[in-house]
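[[Local backbone shapes]]
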Amino acid sequence: MIYLSKGELTRSRRTGLDYVSHCGCVYALGPELAGLWKKARLRPQPVPEGKEQAVRRMEGSGLVITTEETGTLAAYRLLTGCVICPNSRKWTDCFLSKPIRRVWKWITEAGLRLTASELIRLEEQRVQPTSALLGEDGRQRLTEMIYFAETIPDGILETLMEHSPARDTVIGALLELLRTRRLLLI
């Protein structure tokens, strides 16, 4: 089993405990859970032997997501189960490669939160993040670029993008942005 952490970590100066904020709730983590949560904070990790129950407990609280898959398919399934948000810190994108920079621009400037499958769809269609598609004014046009009659029902786009030739490129870009702490997964 592979898992990935969700939420934002804070540490109490007063108590020294680690807390994870997720969807308006704050969870205090003891040393064991904090260690497990931190281990999968920046990339998917295999669940350590004997720690399955602890990871399942965190999954029940929404602090991690798990999958039985492996490789890039596992990363895809984990990321499709998360809301992808840019970290609130200001970042420069001059050190990012072109594909990663394009994904970063979609994440930070689109007028809505894009899912991993939506980002893959945009990459698959080679849609560039132009001013006409970005911001609040571009929301409707962007949505129309991603969805068509066959992909509107729930789960269809995720299933189609699972087999997209652009999947590995976008997942690699998302994992790099996560590794460099530019993303927050919710």
User: Anything to note?
Assistant: The chain is about 40% helix and 15% strand. The CA atoms of residues 117 and 158 lie 5 Å apart.
